[in-house]
Design a protein that fits this description.
This is Saccharopine dehydrogenase-domain-containing protein. It holds the Pfam family Sacchrp_dh_NADP. Keywords: Membrane, Transmembrane, Transmembrane helix. It is a single chain. The protein is of the alpha/beta class. The protein folds into two domains: 181 residues, Rossmann fold (3-Layer(aba) Sandwich); 228 residues. It is built from 16 helices and 14 strands. α5 runs parallel beside α6 and α7 packs parallel to α10.
Length: 434
C-alpha cells in the first residue's frame, strides 16, 4: 500500500481549480505525492482528467460541499486539502470541520476576514489537539503581504543575530491581471449574507490576532514610500486588499508574540509593530483618481438595483481572465521594514527592503503556484523545517505555518523570486547615515 501523502484539491473543475490541477499534475515532485481531485460533477472530473492526460494514479472524488458524508469520505484519506470552493462564508466551514476532525492539513484562497474570524473562534483550539494545520488565505491574498514581512524580519534578525523590534512594515504593490466570477460572488456574499455586526468586528484592527497591538496610522489619501537604496519614492493609492491582508499579518504578529512570551529567542515582530500597504500608481493625481474610483465602485455594489445589474454583466462563477491576460500578468511587491530607532540620536533606523516578484496573473496563474506550494510545504517538508509556532496545529497564517519553507519552494518553482537586503536609511536631518 502506498504511503505517499494525498493532496486533495476541492473545486478542481472551477476556474482556479483547473489551474492548480494542471500545475500539480506536472509538478517535478509529482512522484512524491498522490493527486486527488474533487468536484460536484463526475462528468466534469472525468473531462478534466482527460484534458490533463492524467492516468489511473489520480484519485477522483465526487464531492458536493453541502453533503457532509461526501466531504468526510474524501477528506479523511488526505494529508492536505486545497479548497477553492467559495464563497467560503457559504461553503467553507464543513470542509474545515472535516479537516480538523481527522487531523488533515488545509489551505485555501479566501480573503473573507469575517469567515476566518469564525473558524478561528470555532476550530483553532480543536485543531491544536488533532494536529491539523489550517491556513486560510494562501493565494495572492495574503501570501505576498505576510511572507515579505516575514522575510524582512528574518533579514533583520540575521544581520543583528537576535530578534529585532519592528516599527513599521509597508508593502507597495505593482500588479497586472484580471478578475473572475468567483471574486464577484465573494463580494456579493459579503454584502448580502454576512451580518453587519460581524463585518464591523473585522474592521477593527487585530481582529484575527490573539493579542491587540499598536494601532496603525490613518490611511493617507496619497501614499509615499521612500526607498533609501535607490533614493526613489514610490507613490500610490489605497489598496482594496489592505484590510484582509493586514488582518492576516496582524495574526502572524500576535501568534509570534505569544510564542516569544515563552521563549525570548523566538522570532517576533515586537510590541510596536505596524503594517500597511498600497497600490503603486506612479503619481499623486492617479492615486487620488484611483482611490475615488474604488470608492465609487464599492458604493455601487452597496446599492441594490445597481448590484443586481452588475451581477448580470460581470463575470459569472467559473469565468475568469483569458490565457493572454494570465500569461502577461505580473506582480512586484516591495516591502520596506523599519526597525525601532536606536537610542543613539545620530543613528538612522535600520531598514530592510524585500522584493517579491512573480510572472503571471497574480490572482490566478500565480495564485495556483502559491497555494500548491503552500500545500506541499505542509506534507513534503520536514516538520522541524517549519516555524515552531506552526508545528502544533491550529488556524495559522502562511508565515507562521510555513515560513522559510514556503519561500524556498516558491523560488524553486521558477515563478517567484525574492530579494532581501539591508538598505541605507534616510539620514536624520543634520546627521550622517550609518
Amino acid at each position: 500500500m502506498s504511503t505517499k501523502p494525498v493532496v486533495l484539491l476541492l473545486g478542481a473543475t472551477g476556474f482556479t481549480g483547473r489551474l492548480i490541477a494542471k500545475y500539480l499534475s506536472t509538478h517535478p515532485e509529482g512522484s512524491a505525492f498522490t493527486l486527488a481531485l474533487g468536484a460536484r460533477s463526475k462528468g466534469r472530473l472525468d473531462a478534466l482528467a482527460s484534458d490533463l492526460g492524467l492516468g489511473s494514479a489520480v484519485q477522483l472524488h465526487v464531492v458536493d460541499v453541502t453533503r457532509a458524508e461526501q466531504i468526510e469520505a474524501a477528506v479523511k484519506g488526505a494529508a492536505v486539502v486545497i479548497n477553492t470552493v467559495g464563497p467560503f462564508w457559504t461553503w467553507g466551514t464543513p470542509v474545515v470541520h472535516a479537516c480538523v476532525k481527522h487531523g488533515v492539513h488545509y489551505v485555501d484562497l479566501t480573503g473573507e476576514t469575517e469567515w476566518i474570524k469564525r473558524i478561528i473562534t470555532t476550530y483553532h483550539y480543536s485543531a491544536t489537539k488533532t494536529g491539523a494545520i489550517i491556513v486560510p488565505s494562501c493565494g495572492f491574498d495574503s501570501v505576498p503581504a505576510d511572507i515579505t514581512t516575514h522575510v524582512s524580519s528574518k533579514t533583520l534578525r540575521d544581520i543583528t543575530g537576535e530578534p529585532v523590534d519592528i516599527d513599521t512594515s509597508v508593502s507597495a504593490y505593482v500588479v497586472r491581471g484580471g478578475f473572475s466570477g468567483g471574486t464577484v460572488s465573494t463580494l456579493v456574499t459579503a454584502i448580502e449574507e454576512i451580518p453587519a455586526n460581524e463585518r464591523r468586528v473585522v474592521r477593527t484592527e487585530f481582529s484575527l490576532s490573539p493579542a491587540v497591538g499598536t494601532p496603525s496610522p490613518r490611511s493617507p489619501l496619497i501614499y509615499r514610500l521612500f526607498l533609501p537604496d535607490t533614493r526613489k519614492t514610490l507613490i500610490g493609492a489605497y489598496f482594496f486588499m489592505q484590510p484582509p491582508n493586514r488582518a492576516v499579518v496582524h495574526r502572524s504578529w500576535g501568534l509570534l508574540e505569544a510564542e516569544a512570551a515563552g521563549d525570548a529567542r523566538a522570532p517576533r515582530y515586537g510590541p510596536v509593530f505596524k503594517y500597511d500597504e498600497f497600490l503603486v500608481t506612479g503619481g499623486a493625481v492617479r492615486s487620488v483618481l484611483l482611490t475615488l474610483a474604488m470608492a465609487l465602485g464599492l458604493g455601487a455594489f452597496l446599492i441594490t438595483p445597481i448590484r443586481w445589474l452588475l451581477k448580470k454583466v460581470l463575470p459569472k462563477s467559473g469565468e475568469g481572465p483569458s490565457e493572454t491576460v494570465q500569461r502577461n500578468g505580473f506582480m512586484k511587491v516591495t516591502n520596506l521594514t523599519t526597525a525601532v530607532a536606536s537610542a543613539s540620536p545620530a543613528a538612522a533606523p535600520l531598514q530592510v527592503k524585500t522584493v517579491m516578484t512573480g510572472q503571471g496573473d497574480p490572482g490566478y496563474s500565480l495564485t495556483a503556484v502559491i497555494i500548491a506550494e503552500a500545500a506541499l510545504s505542509l506534507v513534503l517538508s520536514a516538520t522541524d523545517a517549519r516555524p515552531a509556532v506552526g508545528r502544533r496545529g491550529g488556524v495559522l497564517t502562511p508565515a507562521t505555518a510555513m515560513g522559510d519553507v514556503l519561500v524556498e519552494r516558491l523560488v524553486k518553482s521558477g515563478r517567484v523570486t525574492f530579494e532581501s537586503k539591508v538598505v541605507a536609511a534616510r539620514p536624520v536631518e543634520g546627521k550622517k547615515t550609518v
